[in-house]
Write a structure and sequence with these properties.
The chain has 275 residues and is an alpha+beta fold. The protein folds into 2 domains: 17-106, D-amino Acid Aminotransferase, Chain A, domain 1 (2-Layer Sandwich), CATH 3.30.470.10; 111-270, D-amino Acid Aminotransferase, subunit A, domain 2 (D-amino Acid Aminotransferase, Chain A, domain 2), CATH 3.20.10.10. Helices cover 22% and strands 31% of the residues. Keywords: Folate biosynthesis, Lyase, Pyridoxal phosphate. Its cofactor is pyridoxal 5'-phosphate.
Length: 275
């Protein structure tokens, strides 16, 4: 895979706090021919994370220069910002010197999943509650790593996660949406989970209610979707429990296309690729 990064920035040292403690943030951005999609939303989330962790925000002109260096065609730009080195143990330095690293690689979405939908399963792992970090894309993703190890079946595209109180939160790397009684809904993310940039854009564009709901809500849903700012929106075609037994099926069709169409408009994906 071809990758690019800033030539003057070398390897991350072993005493980097991001490496040692997950003390930092990251963003993954879809870039088309040097133009970053949902760029302002990515920068807004990065700024929220910097405020929450007490990190200086990188200079705007430095960040704005990166998409243009990502290369031609469809690319995924990954930014990693750590607190840098220093401090004593968990105590961070009073004046941190953050490290910003980035790389860009070719990216291809999966249009067959846009059209046919995906099979997902419920995960056994429960997300811990931490409102101070809720919504942020911080570097400590061990819960997601453990959840993703729960299945090996390539037919299962994603796993759905609940928090320790049993409320739906997200998939391992995507946000969750459903339509119930004609109303669009998505899990509330004020106690844990990652508030995706595509989710934020859809909340602005469409009447989507943020709710507390357990996984049983999906059994009553007329349609359901997963989405993020790289893959776009996948309709759910089948839901399994944590043992792999089928709980619900949907037939992706017109009922699934409205939310998908708005998401793909925001990401510049052609509507014809999903039909």
């Amino acid at each position: 895979m071809s990758e690019s990064r800033l030539p003057e920035e070398g390897a991350v040292p072993l005493d980097d706090r991001g490496l040692a403690y997950g003390d930092g943030l990251f963003e993954t951005v879809l870039v088309r021919d040097g133009e970053a999609l949902l760029w302002e939303a990515h920068l807004a989330r990065l700024a929220r994370g910097c405020r929450a962790l007490g990190l200086p925000m990188p200079a705007r002109d430095r960040l704005d220069s990166l998409p243009g260096q990502a290369g031609e065609g469809l690319r995924v730009l990954k930014l990693i910002l750590t607190r840098g080195s220093g401090g004593r143990g968990y105590l961070p330095p009073a004046e941190p010197s953050p490290r910003l690293r980035w790389q860009a690689a070719p990216f291809s979405p999966q249009p067959h999943r846009w059209r046919a939908g995906v099979r997902v399963r419920l995960c056994r792992l429960r997300l811990g509650l931490q409102p101070a970090l809720a919504g942020l894309k911080h570097l400590n993703r061990l819960e997601n790593v453990l959840a993703r190890q729960e299945w090996q079946d390539p037919e299962v595209a994603e796993g759905l996660l609940c928090d320790s109180d049993g409320w739906l939160v997200e998939a391992t790397c995507m946000n969750l949406f459903w339509r119930r009684d004609g109303r669009l809904e998505t899990p509330r993310l004020d106690r844990c989970g990652v508030a995706g940039t595509l989710r934020a854009a859809l909340l602005e564009a469409l009447p989507i209610a943020e709710v507390d709901a357990g996984p049983e809500v999906l059994l009553d849903a007329e349609a359901a979707w997963l989405g993020n700012s790289l893959q776009g929106v996948w309709p759910l075609a089948r839901l399994d429990d944590a043992r792999g037994s089928e709980l619900k099926r949907w037939a992706p069709g017109e009922a699934h296309r409205s939310l998908q169409a708005e998401a793909h408009r925001l990401l510049g994906y052609s509507p014809s690729m999903a039909s």
